[in-house]
């Protein structure tokens, strides 16, 4: 936390950050924010653990028991359709010894069975069996279910997640995005007319914010939804010829890391998954209109794939220059509404969270599970770990002595277990 003062402390110039609630300068984020491990970890806490994340569409769960494994910012989770038809999300962490409950990408199951010691869970996350624990005095099955994640499904069937471990997320979906699913331009499309077709991904050697910035150039901020950005496609940026060729497009970028584009023949979702300060993965899901021919679908699908590859190449080159440290922060033109707004939102969220942590005297990980005393690790153990951490500043910045349970936070993006704490 102490090293973060270099990013938020006084005396910053040349496009340096400003504290929350002040008018930010029209500057992009400093180059260091695209390679710093500290900033990356702070983004995990301040953004990806707090904001609603567009993740997939309910079309991917046609049957009871259909499930998919996802990850974002180091948190691995499962989405599954239960017997009541609900889509649930759980951390992919066994409550016994934290082994992943699923290791495949997806499937259809009646139950989740951990391969390590055989604990099994229902589609609603409840613990079904824990071999050897039946007779254990004081063991309460009802308190050892999978750790849940908040799910919201909007009116168009898109599935959103929020990793905030509170009973209700601090940021409600309604406050952040209400109305974004009711945009008049969506009325032209019936999302039930599409089927999931395929998923694909690319990895990129660049910080996720570079591509988000890149998207942003094509979007204008929504005045009614400050957390979202929508393309002005009242008539589309589509020409009459494009409309005639099935290329009438409506695209929406959802802060922080997702975009969705819908056309008559397909819609596709793109998620930017940060993997480290300087790497990310771009994950795509493509849904095909049931009434489109192979040619119609493939032609448009390929056009978008090559566009995505071009975007990737630009981002890689940008990151190379940012890494040199030579890059100075150019001032943005006020008419560049999209690019101005993205850094402002990021800067504000990080500064606000950092202030909270300074006030609390420790890192705040909103995705950390808050379990009752009797279920959580011992406070004594956590305090022991915290003391070690405070004696080792490098351990703090790297995630703490125990990988997060002590308050130092998970060590790297690869961490999958949600931390527990005593409340
Ligand atoms: S870690 Fe899953 S059953 Fe032991």
From TrEMBL:
Classification via CDD domains: RHO_alpha_C, Rieske_RO_Alpha_N
Record domain Rieske: where: 54-139
Chain segments carrying region Disordered: 1-27
UniProt keyword terms in alphabetical order: 2Fe-2S, Iron, Iron-sulfur, Metal-binding, Oxidoreductase
SUPFAM superfamilies for this protein: Bet v1-like, ISP domain
Required co-factors: Fe cation
Domain of life where this protein originates: Eukaryota
GO molecular function, one term: 2 iron, 2 sulfur cluster binding
Entry-linked PROSITE patterns: RIESKE (PS51296)
Catalytic activity: choline + 2 reduced [2Fe-2S]-[ferredoxin] + O2 + 2 H(+) = betaine aldehyde hydrate + 2 oxidized [2Fe-2S]-[ferredoxin] + H2O
Compositionally biased spans, kind Low complexity: 9-19
Keyword Kinase: no
Stated role: Catalyzes the first step of the osmoprotectant glycine betaine synthesis.
Similarity comment: family membership: Belongs to the choline monooxygenase family.
Entry protein name: Choline monooxygenase, chloroplastic
Organism from which the protein derives: Penicillium hordei
